[in-house]
Amino acid sequence: xxxxxxxxxxxxISEMKNSKRVAVEEEIIGMVKLNPFLYERKHEMYKNKCMxxxxxxxxxxxxxxxxxxxxxxxxxxxxxxFQEFKAELIPSGSADEAxxxxxxxxxxxxxxxxIYTPVDNSPCSSLNISKTVQELQQNMTxxxxxxxxxxxxxxxxxxxxxxxxxxxxxxxEAELTPAEFCNLQIEILKALKAASIPNYLQMFCLQQI
Length: 209
Description:
single chain; mainly alpha
């Protein structure tokens, strides 16, 4: 006896037409936003792989797209948001104002901004550096005032150069994810701006790590 059930073919996201791909991405964003444990590190179920797989499998069946592809697409969207969000916080040119991102999913993904909120159990706090923005503000002012002499090769290493070299080494050893590294840079940038450090020196300091 033959079966009347027709098996639907699996569709790859990369092979979809733009309108279909946009619809899938919108579904992914909506699903993740409704399930904070998929992105909020402080959530008690953040490391629950079974629940994570369940949600992506359910969406995969709904969209007829493999769950692994949905996970990969979500990581791409999340990383893109972090990149755009970081750019928004960095002043552009001489205007001393950040340019707001025009990426189509920027506003829909604003809920991810909470990930950047410094918390005591943040991976960045495990580094042997100033653990709060206030401490960074106190340390940066005196260090950055002497940062210009770093460019002179004949001059012994300054306190600022030693500080940034130590910071870069500890950051590398911490094996931060791209999101965590962006978080660290943003907190340092906030401290520099709060200390009224000129823009060109802000960028110079960030380049040291």
